[in-house]
Amino acid sequence: MQKSTAQTNSLKPDAGAIAAHIRDGGGISLAEYMRRAASAYYAGATPFGRTGDFTTAPEISQLFGEMIGLWCADLWMQAGKPARVMLAELGPGRGTLMADILRTARNWPEFHAALSVHLVEASPQLRAVQATALGDAVCAWHDDVAGLPRGDFSLILANEFFDALPIRQFIRRGGVWRERFVVWDAAEEALAFDCRAAPDTAAYIPAHLSEAPEGSIFEASPQSTAIAAQMAAHIAESGGACLAIDYGHIKTAAGDTLQAVSKHQYADVLENPGGQDITAHVDFDALRLAAAGQTEVFPALTQGQFLNALGIGMRAQKLADQASTQQQAQIPLDVHRLTAPSAMGDLFKVLCWVQKGSGLIPAGFGKGEG
């Protein structure tokens, strides 16, 4: 078994409770471990920004949110400028992205007036932060996608949302696929990984990986694909588009991408559960397949391709023309971080799906597939 160095006497309260549950219950799946850890983490932390655990694209530069706002306005115009638009964001963090989108939307007063803002956020603490940032611009908060109102033309955004959802990890051991569990190692008095047989494993392993080499790891996120399908069902009924941006891979493949981050440094996944961010790379091919049956899905882009196609370079220059000397020096650094292949440009991917037959062509994307 792979050992964690975490000890019960040094765990924080949430971590201690999760560890005790695992110790007393004989172990839980990795997916359940991630669910419990994320619930505790986002209930008691504001992890964003330089003083937190990680920084998202909207926190790096206002340019990111401005590009998304422009993208939304373009779709609204393509759709004939509907008088009512349901604008929703999943996992809106501190509300920074939505604030930048709304500020950009003011360039088109009719568009701004048409917007009805809805946020999908389960954490009461983060809802309070979002309320402070956005004020009465928010019409309502929802616990999940199913709660979003239907009927109006809809724009649904998910930036760095799917990476935080639980994954199931399957490991090739002894010629068969087994599922990764988190257990209590009494000898080490620490959490540890184990693997066990799972009756539904075959349903998740792609055919081309059924005979993968010993030790291979495959990840699946049933919750992610279920939510992508819900988003697609919403768009199929109400019209509009969904946009998902996250770090991940375009094609489904084997590999271990599970990671934890604390104070902008990588950490032990099994250490301090509930006190650090635990994520995994997003399988954009799986999201595509989940949405394709109900909507028209466009081939995924890298974040660099997407932002450059929207004209982030031109906007950065205009912003620099009005900026202080210090800001002028920072703006190109921020653009590089968002778009360069060596930074976020290639690691992050962008996927979009729209209502079938709508004729919508989202800015930056080519021809879609139903």
What keyword list fits this structure?
370 residues, alpha/beta, Rossmann fold, 2 domains, 8-stranded mixed β-sheet, 25% strand, globular, disordered N terminus
Number of spatially distinct domains: 2
Which CATH top level class of the largest domain fits?
Alpha Beta
Strand content: 25-35%
Give the N-terminus to C-terminus distance in angstroms: 44 Å
CATH fold field value of the largest domain = Rossmann fold
**Helix percent band:** 25-40%
**What is the overall shape?**
globular
Radius of gyration over C-alpha positions, nearest whole angstrom: 21 Å
Would you identify the regions where 5 or more consecutive residues have pLDDT less than 50? 1-10
β-strand number? 17
Tally of DSSP helical segments: 13
Counting helices, strands and paired strands, the structural category is alpha/beta
One letter per element, helices H and strands E, the order comes to EHEHHHEHHEHEEEEEEHEEEEEHEHHHHE
Please provide a written account of the structure.
- This protein has helices at 13-25, 30-44, 57-60, 62-78, 96-105, 109-114, 124-134, 222-238, 284-292, 303-310, 312-321, 325-339, 344-347; strands spanning 2-3, 28-29, 85-90, 115-120, 138-142, 153-159, 168-173, 176-185, 190-196, 217-220, 240-249, 259-262, 265-267, 277-279, 282-283, 295-302, 348-355.
- The chain is an alpha/beta fold.
- The strands form three sheets. Strands 3, 4, 5, 6, 11, 15, 16 and 17 form an eight-stranded mixed sheet that branches. Strands 1, 2, 7, 8, 9 and 10 form a six-stranded antiparallel sheet that branches. Strands 13-12-14 form a three-stranded antiparallel sheet.
- The longest helix has 17 residues, at 62-78.
- The relative contact order is 0.16.
- Residues 1-10 have low confidence and may be disordered.
